[in-house]
């Protein structure tokens, strides 16, 4: 078991997220501002109609990042299940924060190629979240299973 696995993370989670972020930013930038191959919907939806939902997504993402980022700091890692702050509602608040940031970019320019890549990024996050949950179940046992039953992976159970 690697050090990351002991901490409840996928061993390639960080590298995969960094690779996908870089790929997304290149594809989004090139399609949205240079080639404009798949941004034809911007002809029908005005900028202010795109920027408001994009801003909401980015704003929520920033709040989630700010409130949940403490978990990645080594000196603040908990020895038990974290169920405070945004972890009270979803099991992986940093992943929805990332996804909302990606979605905000997609909404701002309506790049369909970027939307397709967003789908791939979601599937990657879904995979690593499931992998990490199995590790956390092994590490924390019944305490994590109880927490898992109370919270949603992506959407708070109270909102379903």
Description:
- The protein is an all-alpha fold and 160 residues long.
- It has one domain (17-35, 47-152).
- The protein has 6 helices and no strands.
- It has helices at residues 3-6, 13-35, 47-68, 94-109, 112-140, 142-150.
- Helix 2 (13-35) packs antiparallel against helix 5 (112-140).
- The longest helix is centred in the last third of the chain and has 29 residues, at 112-140.
- The radius of gyration is 17 Å and the shape is elongated.
- The mean pLDDT is 91.
Fold topology:
Layout: H1 3-6, H2 13-35, H3 47-68, H4 94-109, H5 112-140, H6 142-150
Helix pairs in contact: 2-5, 3-4, 4-5, 5-6
- Low-confidence spans: none
Q: Helix/strand-derived class?
A: mainly alpha
Q: What sequence of helices (H) and strands (E) makes up the elements?
A: HHHHHH
Helix residue percentage: 55-70%
Query: If you average the pLDDT, what whole number results?
Result: 91
> Tally of extended strands?
0
Multimerization status: single chain
The total domain count is: 1
Which word captures the global form? elongated
Note the total helix count.
Answer: 6
Question: How much strand?
Answer: under 5%
| Ends apart, CA distance between termini | 36 Å
| Main beta-sheet annotation | none
